[in-house]
């Protein structure tokens, strides 16, 4: 199955982080199942128009987080669910990141929560 990852140069988020986060979401959602082989570093870098070193960093970070395992003969493959963080841990990490960003903008908790509720209400089922 081809990996569906898009990099938005205008997003303000580092390309490696965009790729990393999208792969984590694909794994968490079950679109990339345990044992699925990810594309070789050079191929994914070429497909996304990024440097090989950028994708190598993504794969290193994914491996450090328990999302994938790399072996010479098999390449980089998605690990079993027991070997990686659960949805609750990911949700708490995302919430902490959002809370820091909201605090950096100088908004209070009520305003930040209202922004989440507003964003949630316009999401379509299956939106990532």
From TrEMBL:
* Pfam families given in the database record: GntR (PF00392)
Alphabetical UniProt keywords: DNA-binding, Transcription, Transcription regulation
Enumerate the GO terms in the molecular function aspect.
DNA binding; DNA-binding transcription factor activity
SMART domains from the UniProt entry: HTH_GNTR
Which residue range or ranges hold the HTH gntR-type domain?
A: 13-81
Checking InterPro entries in the record gives: Tscrpt_reg_HTH_GntR, WH-like_DNA-bd_sf, WH_DNA-bd_sf
Q: What is this protein called?
A: GntR family transcriptional regulator
Give the species this sequence originates from. Amycolatopsis albispora
State the organism's lineage. Answer: Bacteria, Bacillati, Actinomycetota, Actinomycetes, Pseudonocardiales
